[in-house]
């Protein structure tokens, strides 16, 4: 098993067995397991594992793993339809509003779909910024995503 596979296995075990609220807390636990990781590496590992932050009924948030994993391709975009609230073309970027805590899962689905018009995404808690590829008008990406996520959906 490679180092990154062993590290991801440890992360999966920690998140599955404990309430981890922050990346810093997770980083400390991963260090206890013998893996010294940067925040950037930890973020990539969390995305690769399909981890997301979820709200607790009693308040606060924790990381959780989606064992179902987001499917690949355009199916992945349709799978997250219920999480998307709006798609807005700003003239430079596309801004997607999601349900609270859902932006990472939606951005991961978009990244995995590998749309030829999309250069990349940045996700917060309920907002995603999408950069179109060079020469692609943002309105084209917004229209494509709106047709997948919003058309025919009850909003």
Structure description:
This protein is α+β, with helices and mostly antiparallel strands and 155 residues long. The protein has six helices and six strands. The longest helix has 15 residues, at 3-17. The radius of gyration is 17 Å and the shape is globular.
What is the CATH T-level topology of the largest domain? Gyrase A, domain 2
Number of domains: 2
Shape: globular
Share in β-strands: 15-25%
* Overall SS class: alpha+beta
Distance between the termini: 46 Å
Walk me through the topology.
Blueprint: H1 3-17, H2 23-32, H3 39-49, E1 51-55, E2 61-65, H4 73-79, E3 84-89, E4 94-98, H5 103-113, E5 118-123, E6 127-132, H6 138-149
Antiparallel strand pairs: 1-2, 3-4, 4-6, 5-6
Helix pairs in contact: 4-5
Short description:
This protein is α+β, with helices and mostly antiparallel strands and about 160 residues long. The protein folds into two domains: about 5-65, Arc Repressor Mutant, subunit A (Orthogonal Bundle), CATH 1.10.10; about 75-150, Gyrase A, domain 2 (2-Layer Sandwich), CATH 3.30.1360. Helix content is about 45%, strand content about 20%.
